[in-house]
User: Fold this.
Amino acid sequence: MTTPFVPVRPPTARPRRVHLVLRDGAALDGRIYLSEGQTLALYLGSRKGGWVNIVDVVWAADGDTAPHLVLQVDHLALAASTDHDIPAVVGSAIAAQRWVQLGLEHGERLQGCLFLAERQRLSDYLHAVGKFLPITHTTRVHDGVELGDVALNCAAIKLVRDIAVPAHSETHPVEQADTPYSMFMINDVPVTRQSIRTDAAAMTLLTPGRIPDRRANEEMNRSALAPRSLEAELVPLTHEQELGVMRAGRHWMGQLAARRGLAPPVGRLLSASPTVSELWRAVCAANDLGEDELAAIVASDCKLRVAVCEAIDSKSVAQIPGKIARRLGAVPVSMEGGMLHVATADPLDPSLEQQLRFVTKMRVEIEIAPPSVIERAHACWYPADGVHATVG
Assistant:
């Protein structure tokens, strides 16, 4: 006798009504089981084997019903909460808003709001967002129908356009040689076109301005880190700095820089036993990168997500005592069912995940955040004194 299939659900999960649109245009309504506070984008992007269970299904085209079906999430274009009771992102009110228009593979256009970390570039965010993009206040452009908060399959997106870039204007290309982007003039305003390619998607991003100009607001901070004068370059490194350079070359950050074609860390910014924070700053200074940009590179190299530490929720913080969080250089960001998402600047610490699992008694997913972001989160959520570990 065959045993009937019974979906395994977390004990705290309850059915939530959702509206799903497939990539071929078919639409259906049904219920999926989500825990309190669980977001659609992370839920759909983390399904084991890429499958999602749906119950009480009604197909929009002909009204056919089914008590239960299992859907491959790769076939989804978007998912929306029918009752608006599923959050798009955790703690979105304290993240930076970015309004965009999105062109989908079948020609439809949507408009909505993304939530990025402070000063995070839209291109870096799209590189690291995962399989599903969370969008709030979403509307269909052609008829103005409000969809609310949705999770959009990145593989279904062909174009992301900053809301400041006109949708229909005459363009005049100004191609740049040997660069990963192109410049266009739209209504006499420069616009950057970039190709975004990730494991989940390939899309085009249009943003106003020139890429070098968008880094101008970071130059003051970088100039304080990197030695610019010829006189400074000619001064020999101290013995401690030479030790720091040697140890940095053996550290995963130095090896990542070499593997990704980046310049090695600036030796003058390193102590004899450089901390993770020093290594991040030294690599950024050597390559004229912002910490958010380096976080996207680290996340891509390690096959991890960039954490949104501006969206930390207090229930997650309570899972790790402050003293331990500071010692490990980690910050809990969010919980999805039985999974705790933890941000760190040192993802290749061999004992990190094991210690986190031991302390929290939960499954742990590591995400990437720059050291300065981790330190600010510690100061905000764990105000007690603590000491950050160094790397040997």
